[in-house]
Amino acid sequence: xxxxxxxVVANWKMNGNSDLVQQMSxxxxxxxQPLPEILICPPVILLTDFPKHQNYKLGAQNVSEQHSxxxxxxxxxxxxxxxxxxxxxxxxxxxxxxxGELDTVISQKVKVAIDAGLTPVVCVGETLQQREEEKTLExxxxxxxxxxxxxxxxxxxxxxxxEPVWAIGTGRTATPQQAQQVHHFIRQHLAxxxxxxxxxxxxxxxxxxxxxxxxxxxxxxxxxxxxxxGASLKVAEFSAICTMAKDS
Length: 248
Ligand SMILES: O=C(CO)COP(=O)(O)O
What we know:
Number of helices: 10
Catalytic activity: D-glyceraldehyde 3-phosphate = dihydroxyacetone phosphate
Bound molecules: 1,3-dihydroxyacetonephosphate
Subunit structure: Homodimer.
Number of strands: 8
Largest sheet: 8 strands, parallel, barrel
CATH topology: TIM Barrel
Shape: globular
Helix content: 25-40%
Radius of gyration: 17 Å
Pfam families: TIM
Keywords: Cytoplasm, Gluconeogenesis, Glycolysis, Isomerase
CATH class: Alpha Beta
Strand content: 5-15%
Oligomer: single chain
């Protein structure tokens, strides 16, 4: 029996509306236990539309590294908590690539989120070019070290998500073996900071996960769930993925 409870995360990105909130919450609410931990991360404005239900938790897709003040357009960790979020995705490759988020700011965000009482889902992953240049493990080590080297206590309160950039929204998933190899590396690498925390750390996979390919991914020893974009907007498919994760 696996000691880490599987975690399935929906990242709606800049998609969805109150109708989808209703449909998703209706569908998830009737799923029978045992279930994986299910986390829905809609655009923040929809967080308060979700009815509370024991079958799922709510998260945001970003958080400010600041506590409060003159930071136009930003949302603080305390505000997310007040809106019902328990988790927050940090360092998604779209934030890194499109909004210039650097390792230093990502590291601050993780600290601020945890200090406020949110669980961060810390995203790491290599680009296609980095993979082809055989720099995958080096890039991942850098991204992980930026967060955990100076603040190893954060590890015990984090989730890590491996999202190869070349697999996001492309329909090209990492093979279960490719993903497992990287997840194993991540766990081993983080063990230098806190072996016990690394052992129980949930490392989830993201990148073109569907109801068709998720079972093979979940079967791998170090893949503890999934971070899902496109398929998380389809109520029936997302529910099916959640149901499959509970058995992994
Ligand atoms: O970026 C992702 C989740 O955060 C993955 O997106 P897709 O599932 O659409 O590839």
